[in-house]
């Protein structure tokens, strides 16, 4: 039998990651001078075949993957093989994506867009929504113990947040491991970067869990669905439109996950409660739920 060792296709790319934090001098409540770290934030304008598409505010730690993932989740590009090159130039605050054969229908794609509640400002184009229901998410069976294991592992990955705060983190989770973890100033940027990394590494989403530190809005549900991931997990809360969309798509949605506490908003039939914690009284449960949703 032939040994297929072919590597996933990768376009020609720059390697222009920025340091995610900056050291600054401050004075504390005693008037003493201290050095602290703050999250970076830089504008990055995406050009595709010399056409300006959008300006994203980002940490800049994964700019090439961010650009690719943005084009993927907005359904501007349907396959990584369509992209010839991705070149980041921080002096011009731009990333130029070159395709092999151009992108058809730019005017139609850019004509209608919706500004969303993503951190900073997110955008969903009509072509994203048009293709959202083209696929059905795969069936899933998820153990409660796996959720707890993931939450414990994830607690050691938010380096930028611990150092500087002011960022969100997103993770692509496989069986017993974190495949990718990305932090950025907006959770939609971190999600797009993971979408780009999945393409670059040839990773499918059918057996994965997508984790975010931010709230589960319709935008995050859309991005997760377009990556083909059937389970969405967050330590934050849920919006009504996000929940309605998850129900329509058959996505398992678990939120307010912190410690041993979580709430399954959709897909509870897919969960095996194999590690139930000791029951608390109702007042304690209410307080914990409110704290986890802050």
From TrEMBL:
One GO molecular-function entry: sulfurtransferase activity
Query: Where mainly located?
Result: cytoplasm
Q: What is the lineage of its organism?
A: Bacteria, Pseudomonadati, Pseudomonadota, Gammaproteobacteria, Chromatiales
Q: Where would you find the membrane-spanning parts of this chain?
A: none
- What gene does this protein come from? fdhD
Describe the task this protein carries out. Required for formate dehydrogenase (FDH) activity. Acts as a sulfur carrier protein that transfers sulfur from IscS to the molybdenum cofactor prior to its insertion into FDH.
User: Please, which domain of life does this record's source organism belong to?
Assistant: Bacteria
What is a biological process (GO) this protein takes part in?
Answer: Mo-molybdopterin cofactor biosynthetic process
Could you identify this protein by its name?
Answer: Sulfur carrier protein FdhD
